[in-house]
Amino acid sequence: MIMKWLHKFSSPPYFYALSGKLIKWLSVLLVAFLAAGLYGGLVLAPADYQQGDSFRIIYVHVPAAWMSLFIYMVMAVSGTIALVWRIKLAEIVSVCSPPIGAGFTFLALVTGSIWGKPMWGTWWVWDARLTSELILLFLYLGLIGLYTAIEDKRTASRSVAILALVGVVNIPIIHYSVEWWNTLHQGPTVTKFDKPSIHIDMLIPLLNMAIAFKLYFAIALLMRSRNELLQREQNGRWVEEVLEGK
Questions:
Q1: Dist CA 225 CA 233 (whole Å)
Q2: Percentages helix, strand, coil for the chain, rounded to the nearest 5?
Q3: Is 80 exposed, middle or buried (0-12, 13-18, 19+ CB in 10 A)?
Q4: What are residue 49's phi and psi, to 5 degrees?
Q5: How many other CB atoms are there within 10 angstroms of residue 218's CB atom?
Q6: What is d(CA 83, CA 98) in angstroms, rounded to the nearest whole number?
Q7: Is 169 exposed, middle or buried (0-12, 13-18, 19+ CB in 10 A)?
Q8: What is the pLDDT of residue 193?
Q9: In this structure, are residues 202 and 43 in contact, taking their beta carbons and an 8 Å threshold?
Q10: What are 48's strand-pairing partners?
Q11: How many Cβ atoms sit within 10 Å of the Cβ of residue 106?
Q12: CA 146 – CA 140 distance, rounded (Å)
């Protein structure tokens, strides 16, 4: 049953029609979670006892950092599926993810620097977490450049998938860097459910913002995938029907 649904979902005409409907509903959810997260984080959440109101940048920085890792894993998994089963839609997801991931990674680095200036007294340090996150940005940019440099898109997609799998080694390094090495970057807080380090009034808006960022990624990915699919299938009959408004 699941394989039948996956096969149906991977059909270009079905995906294009379904994704168009999903974008509308996901956009509504995005506005709702984003509004709840911003209002809760900027208005309702109390000031931090050490950092004051400057801590509120976490409502952008932390979800952006989470997304930089999450999107890379989505790209790596979809790339693996494309390499093994040669599913065109998986290829498209793999090559459409890097620009979005690069944006979130850049946002995480910039907001981290803004936060680090009052906390550490400097905009940047060659910290294990910061350095590995910067490497992640270069990986994303490299994947974007690789895809645009190869004319044949099927060959380019396979090359992107292989490079993405090589770069996966950086993901656990980023995640565990604050535990493996002596670093200025603070350790995990949200994931310490046995001994939470963040107040519930601060945590709820943060989780709302994390959901909002994931919804944004889903919308952006679907929109980019639809455009990429139309370009690849431009000679297909179903594309002609779509362009004719049938």
A1: 12
A2: 80, 0, 20
A3: middle
A4: -70, -20
A5: 19
A6: 17
A7: exposed
A8: 45
A9: no
A10: 52
A11: 17
A12: 10
3-state secondary structure of 146: helix
Confidence at residue 6, expressed as pLDDT on a 0 to 100 scale: 60
How many whole angstroms separate alpha carbon 11 and alpha carbon 84? 17
Tokens 């059909």 label which residue?
A: 11
Check if the beta carbon of residue 225 is closer than 8 Å to that of residue 96.
yes
Cβ neighbors of 151 (< 8 A, separation 6 or more) are none
Q: For the chain, which residues make up each domain, given as ranges? A: 60-199+220-229
Mean pLDDT, residues 186-201: 63
**pLDDT computed for residue 77 by the predictor:** 96
Contact 218, 46 (CB under 8 A): no
Minimal CA–CA distance to 55: which of 67, 41, 66, 69?
A: 41
Residues in the chain, overall count: 246
Q: Which amino acid is at 109?
A: L
Q: With the CA atoms of 221, 226, 227 and 230 taken in that order, what torsion angle do they form, in degrees rounded to the nearest 10?
A: 150
Query: Would you call 170 exposed, middle or buried from its count of C-beta atoms within 10 A (0-12, 13-18, 19+)?
Result: middle
Q: Which of 134, 146, 139 is nearest to 168 (CA)?
A: 139
Q: Average pLDDT in the 151-173 region? A: 94
Angle of helix 88-120 relative to helix 153-167, nearest 10 degrees? 40
Which run of H or E residues covers position 141?
A: helix 128-149
**What mean pLDDT value characterizes the chain?**
88
For the CA atoms of 118, 123, 127, 132, the dihedral, rounded to the nearest 10 degrees, stands at 120
Question: CA-CA distance, 16 to 225, in Å (whole number)?
Answer: 9
For the cut 60, the answer to whether the pLDDT of residue 190 exceeds it is: no
